[in-house]
């Protein structure tokens, strides 16, 4: 089986990490993968590290005239059984290419998350009749996407969850957080891994810290936020300053292999307002760090509130803060969450199993 994967990703995030978890496992299941993506992107370099074939497009954008011709030639030479689209712009690119060239292979689109609004053109492409399957990474994505799909398109949706490779259990920490950032050994560490995008809602993360430190007067905790700085970063840092939290929060910027640092957290705190995954929550669960998260993406599929982790409504910083403290102050509860969460990820959300489910979906689509 040959699969042509198309991605317009320039940077690195959970979507791209999922590709790097799934594609090597697909290869073990007799799937030949070829990635069509942005030249000199992080995705290209990661594909090279894992010996995944990659064809790069120039101009840092898929929707350029010469890239449509390139795609046509790649399809002619590679002869894929399935085209798998991984980003929203790859779907736009495919729709135009399909109209121009009448592309033949059946096509699958992975929907990773939902934005706050959807434009008329977005609705058109999600309902495009040329798609054979829409893979949603969580039940919440399937539910939310279903609100803008017609009945025909809705019948094409299927849930294949995000996953984690068990290989991350062998990761070695790239640095010692307490030593690097001069954190007192007696302090507990609450961590978050997320780029500084609007979807990650880091103002709520800061509000949680404000509630814990300033309102509940807990000075025995240090909060660490790991993620790539963006245009939102200055505003976030100003909010920290305004609340007098400079000594309570550390923003590290991007750290390579950040998941290797998760075992150093006493708790993992995710405050996103929109998610497909997040992959970081699945990684934390596998790596033995208990999770407190907003109710987004795959979180309700993997965490039962109070059973193997804590969940709170989006933006409810007071409930998030209370649950973080409940967790940190109860070692037996932490241990219970860790054991149950690790088993859930190892049994149901590991890359090997999800790759098999993905291949099964490919085979189903090929029979349509």
From TrEMBL:
Keyword DNA repair carried by entry: no
One of the Pfam families matching this protein, by short name: Glyco_transf_4
GO molecular-function terms, A-Z: glycosyltransferase activity
Assigned keywords, A-Z: Transferase
Residue ranges annotated for the Glycosyltransferase subfamily 4-like N-terminal domain, each copy included: 12-167
Keyword Transferase set for record: yes
InterPro entries, sorted: Glyco_trans_4-like_N (IPR028098)
Name assigned to this protein: Glycosyltransferase involved in cell wall biosynthesis
Organism: Flavobacterium cheniae
């Amino acid at each position: 089986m040959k699969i042509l994967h198309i991605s317009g990703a320039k940077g690195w995030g959970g979507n791209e990490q999922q590709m790097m978890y799934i594609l090597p496992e697909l290869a073990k299941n007799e799937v030949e993968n070829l990635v069509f993506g942005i030249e000199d992107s992080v995705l290209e370099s990661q594909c090279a590290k894992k010996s995944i074939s990659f064809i790069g497009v120039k101009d840092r954008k898929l929707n350029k005239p010469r890239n449509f011709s390139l795609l046509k030639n790649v399809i002619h030479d590679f002869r894929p059984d399935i085209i798998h689209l991984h980003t929203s712009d790859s779907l736009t690119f495919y729709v135009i290419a399909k109209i121009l060239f009448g592309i033949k292979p059946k096509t699958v689109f992975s929907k990773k998350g939902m934005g706050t609004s959807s434009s008329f053109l977005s609705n058109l492409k999600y309902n495009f009749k040329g798609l054979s399957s829409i893979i949603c990474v969580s039940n919440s994505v399937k539910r939310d996407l279903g609100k803008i799909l017609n009945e025909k398109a809705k019948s094409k949706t299927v849930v294949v969850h995000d996953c984690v490779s068990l290989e991350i259990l062998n990761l070695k920490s790239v640095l010692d957080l307490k030593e690097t950032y001069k954190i007192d050994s007696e302090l507990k560490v609450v961590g978050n891994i997320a780029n500084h995008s609007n979807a990650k809602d880091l103002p709520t993360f800061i509000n949680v810290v404000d509630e814990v430190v300033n309102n509940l007067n807990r000075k025995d905790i240090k909060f660490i936020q790991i993620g790539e700085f963006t245009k939102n970063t200055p505003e976030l840092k100003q909010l920290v300053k305004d609340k007098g939290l400079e000594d309570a929060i550390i923003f590290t910027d991007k750290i390579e292999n950040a998941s290797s640092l998760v075992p150093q957290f006493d708790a993992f705190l995710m405050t996103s307002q929109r998610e497909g995954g997040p992959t970081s929550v699945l990684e934390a669960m596998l790596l033995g760090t208990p999770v407190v998260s907003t109710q987004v993406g795959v979180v309700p599929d993997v965490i039962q509130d109070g059973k193997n982790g804590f969940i709170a409504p989006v933006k409810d910083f007071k409930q998030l803060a209370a649950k973080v403290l409940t967790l940190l102050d109860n070692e037996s509860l932490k241990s219970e969450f860790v054991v149950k969460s690790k088993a859930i990820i190892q049994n149901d959300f590991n890359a090997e199993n999800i790759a098999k489910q993905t291949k099964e979906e490919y085979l189903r689509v090929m029979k349509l």
